[in-house]
Amino acid sequence: MMKKIIYLPMILLALVAASCLSPRSYGNANGGEVTGVSATGLSEPTPYGMVLVKRGSIKVGEEKADSLWGTSAPVKDISVDAFWMDETEISNAKYRQFVFWVRDSIIRERLADPAYGGDETYKITEDEYGEPIEPYLNWKKPIPWQRPTEDEQRAIESVYITNPITGEKMLDASQMNYRYSIYDYTQAALRKNRLNPEERNRNTDIPTDYDAEVIISKDTAYIDDDGIIVRETITRPLSSQFDFLHTYIVNVYPDTTCWVNDFPNANNEMYLNLYFSHPNYNNHPVVGVSWEQANAFCAWRTEYLLRGLGPQAKWIQRYRLPSEAEWEFAARGREGTKFPWESDDTKSDEGCYYANYKPEEGNYTKDGSLITSRCGIFSANSNGLYDMAGNVAEWTSTVYTEAGILQMSDMNPDLQYKAAKEDPYRMKKKTVRGGSWKDAVRFIQGATRNYEYQNESRSYIGFRCVRSYAGIDRRK
User: Please, are residues 374 and 283 in contact by the beta-carbon 8 Å criterion?
Assistant: First the structure.
């Protein structure tokens, strides 16, 4: 058999020769030992309006069944890594910023759409400094007092409607659709989903099946010719990394009718008309937002943040809903207290209540509020978080099952399921935590579990965001 002759490039030969030299002559003062590649650490700044919940462990759930309701939450010792969490629930003002951003983006697109009399020269994404131009207000950088042209006004007016009965001009909620995509790192990393068949199994006794098909499910969405959002879950053989990129289109305007649908035979018309739009409710928690809309907000908030970070953006984790375990860990603190405060009582010796809930049957106002209260008016818990009991219940990322935490790992536990449109409705339950302004004391305890369907929106359910902490613990 003829031996193959391998010709090494000259630069490679030089490197081989250099490796034979003594450590001192090669310039390594450490005698050829491996010392690691140095890098400058990134000190992650505190995100606006968030606090750091440090890593730790806690026994979640309730060991003793409630004597009145006869229910208990599964018990398990778990540990979670550090994460940032919003100090308060997302307010009407913050969520309205999201809605207005979607509105302005639609207007900006129509300024470049000939169907609306637009001009494609308006399709500008950056100014001369490379900064993104905010839609609507800065579409062509006019003189500040310059009035919109007729075509510009047409694009602006297209997102508004007029009530035929009252003549009131209002935002067309049906058009407030936000499109976003999420790459599923976890599914893409699973060995069974590798594109290379040789990487799917490490058992050398089993021959590689190069013809085996890997079936994946991919969420996608589009708007049809009638303006209806069509969501589909496509099941097909794995073909590329794009199969792990899920696309969603979500109408993001809150369901303001929740105030009358949740409470039949009640006069809540004022909240229907004013709660989301009136300035007096700016700092109250947003309600009427489904689990799907809350996830859309997290995706938008991530996009909004990353645009201004430049190269540092690659280190920043995305905003998301907290897992059920993270929420309970944050609410109960390291001491694992029953409520977010130390005492088992819900009011001080002076009669001041610690949370906004329903103290007595039919008496909503005894704690000072009839419905929601302004975010953060009660004292924070040991983690610096407000309203972790009462005010509004909060969405989590975790799918609801009776077994709860028992089905999950004891490290960073979570159980997620992306329900397809055709799945049975019972598979679309998501865990809700914290209790609300309408709930009795039993339901505002830190370990109490509840659920709602992911497409439902209620006058007593809101949310807050979290973000995984990419820092390190410097304690010895």
Answer: yes
